[in-house]
Design goal:
single chain; alpha/beta; two-stranded parallel ribbon; 8 strands
Length: 219
């Protein structure tokens, strides 16, 4: 539970970050980290579209650079997009100025990937800017610097651990059922390590949440 649903003392490390949305509203907020990649993101988008659900994608800038068409598809389908650094870097190993520069590069790449198309859908997707630190950690100065840049820091109330080689798809699904609650920010991953489990778990998770009366919202 320390990982799946962080304890209160861990949330105090970043007191102005979003860990959970309104607990009085029966809604959840799906998020997907680490994409976009062709092996995972299209499946996720197709599944979300089938259920009429929008989500928030925290993207690695280098993946946006390599697969701009996937980035544009996410935006075109009305999903929210957040920043997950350019190289999926851990903040504890980087100087704050370099970490911030790496993050800013991602926003530049997103704007370049969208090209000369109508800017309104892009701005609706990326503004105001959202940021999630890879691995869930960053230095205090990095946290403060990003907030000064206007970023909202988004953590999670439930991480499914779909990336874990130690968990089966059934165990990932069990995490969703055990820890989801009103206002939960739920984290999946559009990554190579997660996609095999997601192909078994994503649709049943959406159906179970709908059956429990949850609405789906973007951050």
């Amino acid at each position: 539970m320390l990982i799946e649903q962080p304890a209160a003392y861990l949330r105090w490390l970043y007191p102005h970050a979003l860990w959970r949305m309104n607990p009085e509203e029966r809604a959840v907020y799906l998020t997907f980290d680490d994409g976009p990649i062709p092996e995972a993101t299209p499946f996720i988008l197709d599944t979300l579209a089938r259920y009429g659900i929008k989500a928030t994608f925290f993207m690695v800038g280098d993946n946006v650079r390599k697969y701009p068409e996937l980035f544009r598809r996410v935006v075109a389908e009305g999903h929210r997009v957040g920043n997950h650094t350019f190289n999926h870097i851990g903040g504890l190993r980087w100087l704050s100025k370099n970490y911030l520069a790496n993050t800013m590069k991602t926003l530049e790449i997103m704007e370049e990937a969208y090209g000369d198309a109508d800017r309104a859908p892009l701005e609706a997707s990326i503004l105001p800017p959202l940021f999630r630190p890879p691995h869930g950690w960053m230095r205090g100065l990095q946290y403060l610097a990003l907030r000064r840049q206007g970023y909202t820091i988004v953590m999670w109330d439930l991480v499914t651990r779909d990336y874990s080689r130690n968990l089966t798809a059934d165990e990932v699904f069990a995490n969703v059922r055990q820890y989801a609650r009103p206002g939960s920010i739920i984290t999946f991953h559009d990554s190579l390590r997660s996609i095999d489990k997601l192909k078994k778990v994503l649709a049943p998770s959406l159906e179970w949440l709908q059956g429990e009366g949850y609405a789906f919202k973007t951050i």
